[in-house]
Design goal:
This protein is mostly beta strands. The chain is about 0% helix and about 55% strand.
């Protein structure tokens, strides 16, 4: 909980087990990188407890520790599986590139998530799955996306939830398959 004016939560754990982060009313700003960077973990669960308001804000230019890689490139960036749950709120102000991005699976099972991103709003390379929650996305690129061009990857699954998406690119972009079972949509 609390405010971090220019810093980062960095998860660098062994690639086994689940890391659990509880955002209990945080306001994290990082002027030159991702406010939350999951560098290594088998999976990470970020919980938004009921009644909490959480804010992540990045700067418009990142400084990379390894110049050969452009990671992280989102205000909330995970190199491994990421799940966001709970009933609280998360506002992401992505001034550099993407809002929330994962290199593997990204799952949303609840929460009131608002994303303002100069490029893509919410993406999971292998899978993007939303079970429930409210997502309000204003993206310069695509709103919701999954990008891996490989069989059984690059999938977007929307089982429920409320969506309001404004995008300069596609509202939803799935590289291989898109499944929509339920939900309320405004594009």
């Amino acid at each position: 909980s609390g405010k971090l004016d220019d810093g980062q939560i960095l998860v660098d754990a062994e690639d086994e087990g689940t890391v659990k982060l509880v955002l209990n009313g945080v306001d994290i700003t990082n002027s030159d990188s991702a406010p939350i960077f999951i560098k290594s973990a088998e999976s990470t669960v970020i919980s938004l407890p009921e009644g909490t308001e959480n804010v992540l804000t990045d700067g418009n230019e990142y400084v990379f520790t390894d110049e050969s890689k452009d990671e992280p490139d989102a205000a909330l960036f995970s190199k491994d599986d990421l799940t966001i749950n709970g009933t609280g709120s998360l506002a992401v102000h992505a001034n550099y590139n993407d809002g929330i991005a994962g290199k593997d699976d990204v799952r949303i099972t609840g929460g009131d998530i608002t994303i303002h991103a100069v490029d893509d709003g919410l993406s999971g390379r292998d899978l993007l799955a939303v079970k429930e929650g409210t997502l309000t996305i204003d993206a310069g690129g695509d709103g919701l996306k999954s990008t891996k061009n490989e069989e059984s990857k690059g999938i977007v699954v929307l089982e429920g939830g409320n969506y309001e998406v404004t995008a300069g690119g596609d509202g939803i972009q799935a590289e291989t398959s898109l499944y929509i079972a339920d939900g309320s949509y405004k594009f």
